[in-house]
Amino acid sequence: MSTHIGAAPGAVAPHVLMPGDPLRARWVAETFLEDVTCYNEVRGMLGYTGTWRGERISVQGSGMGQPSLAIYATELFTDYDVRSIVRIGSCGALVEKVGLRDVILATGACTDSGMNRLRFHGLDYAPVADFGLLRAAYDAAQARDDVTTWTGLILSGDQFYSPRPELVEPMTDHGVLAVEMEASALYTLAARHERRALAICTVSDHLVTGEETTALERQETFPAMVEIALAAVTA
Ligand SMILES: O=P(O)(O)O[C@H]1O[C@H](CO)[C@@H](O)[C@H]1O
Ligand SMILES: O=c1cc[nH]c(=O)[nH]1
């Protein structure tokens, strides 16, 4: 057991898919994995281990925001020796060319968070994806014709309801495609612990057009993203 994960040693697989929503974790486990066991219910932050095409895979909710993800990612790396984490999240599109339900493979994650400013004494660190995972996810995405995939930068914002929405503009002026709330911490922690990480996000809301998906869709759909993540992590 670690402080926030009630799993026995060895109960978590070396490769973990990590949605923010614990109910998405349950849906992924029930829909994609075989021989599933639930290893964590602490704080309702569900975690499951099963197999996918014969490989052991876990899926663990992270909660919303970088401080919450950092707790789960740190404990998975340090207490359960997890080797790779692939975030499977939802995000908001910031530019018109990216459409609702498109999938984004995040090459890097900009942030407005104070977490890395504290870690790097005010210097700007560039949190980036593991290249091997990114390449495998890109290959898996290219092999499909049911989803439009983008490869590029995202923004990990601390506040879903931002009091300074105008600050997004310099980001989009410099190629940022979408906003979510966790990838920057995940990439930073993976680097710190010499592990692999990737964030794959499906566009659930469009901040330019105002289109949005339903809460149930955010919880229980987005299968293309999950299949791309499973292919990448087992490649
Ligand atoms: O759908 P998840 O993975 O939770 O991701 C996005 O959704 C939440 C906000 O609604 C934030 O966690 C954001 O990053
Ligand atoms: O608009 C959105 C949608 C999902 N996640 C976010 O952080 N923002």
Automatic annotation (TrEMBL):
Record-annotated Nucleoside phosphorylase domain positions: 15-232
Pfam family name, one: PNP_UDP_1
CDD domains per record: PNP_EcPNPI-like
Record carries keyword Glycosyltransferase: yes
GO molecular function list: purine-nucleoside phosphorylase activity; uridine phosphorylase activity
InterPro entries: DeoD-type, Nucleoside_phosphorylase_CS, Nucleoside_phosphorylase_d, Nucleoside_phosphorylase_sf
Catalytic activity: uridine + phosphate = alpha-D-ribose 1-phosphate + uracil
Documented EC number(s): 2.4.2.3
UniProt entry tagged with the keyword ATP-binding: no
An example Gene Ontology biological process: purine nucleoside catabolic process
Keywords, in A-Z order: Glycosyltransferase, Transferase
One cellular-component annotation, GO: cytosol
PANTHER family reported in the protein's UniProt record: FI09636P-RELATED, URIDINE PHOSPHORYLASE
Family under the similarity heading: Belongs to the PNP/UDP phosphorylase family.
Protein name per UniProt: Uridine phosphorylase
Lineage of the species this protein comes from: Bacteria, Bacillati, Actinomycetota, Actinomycetes, Propionibacteriales
Gene designation per UniProt: deoD
